[in-house]
Write a structure and sequence with these properties.
This protein is of the alpha+beta class and 208 residues long. The chain contains three helices and eight strands; from the N terminus they run βαβββββββαα.
């Protein structure tokens, strides 16, 4: 499904969703604008706390997530980059956090989390991790170290989320390469114009 482009600004909050904006991969919720271009997947997920809220909590929290693409002024202007929008509820007007999923700085992997050696399946056994590298690992990310965010969904839904995330990475790379080829072709076309081509033709008298 597609959505009409919409200009949004992430709204500040006191929980760790918004405080995560100081970590790699997040947009600054107080100042960064972005325009959503498309939506691919939506659904409920459980997000493990990063310990970045005022209580230092690492508890699991239920959130509504939307995987889509967006342009970000000054960072991803011409090619829409994958983003994961985290909302408190499906009807929330603005997300509490926005993760920029640039494949050059982001890794997604499924991880099974078993609390015991017997590998008993619990509600949060099937997770996927999104790892953002540091040192410029996202628009607005100021931390120099890598950050891992953990999300839990049922096993079948996890497969769908991971496949959708990886597909969004491939499509972004294709858009990026297409733009680079277009830019190179345009630059090459300008370079092929010879200065002699711009000179006025010689008259018959002067050409003898």
């Amino acid at each position: 499904p597609q959505t009409q482009p919409q200009e949004l600004t992430a709204s500040p909050s006191t929980d760790d969703d918004t405080r995560d904006a100081s970590l790699p991969g997040s947009l600054d919720p107080t100042s960064t604008s972005y325009t959503v271009q498309s939506i691919a997947v939506q659904g409920w997920i459980h997000k493990k706390g990063t310990g970045n809220d005022i209580f230092g909590s690492r508890a699991w929290k239920s959130r509504w997530a939307t995987l889509g693409t967006a342009t970000v002024p000054g960072v991803y202007d011409d090619v829409a980059v994958p983003v994961l929008l985290i909302y408190w509820f499906p009807y929330s007007e603005t997300p509490s956090n926005v993760l920029v999923l640039d494949p050059a700085r982001t890794v997604v992997m499924p991880v099974d989390r078993y609390p015991t050696e017997e590998k008993a399946v619990q509600w949060n056994t099937f997770t996927f991790e999104i790892v953002h590298s540091g040192a410029g690992g996202g628009a607005g990310g100021a931390d120099d170290g890598a950050t891992t965010r953990v999300f839990s969904v049922p096993e079948q839904e996890r497969s769908e989320w991971v496949c959708a995330l990886q597909q969004s990475f491939r499509e972004y790379e294709q858009r990026l390469q297409k733009k680079k080829r277009g830019d190179a072709a345009a630059a090459g076309g300008r370079r092929r114009v010879s200065p002699d081509f711009l000179r006025p033709p010689l008259s018959p008298k002067n050409s003898m």
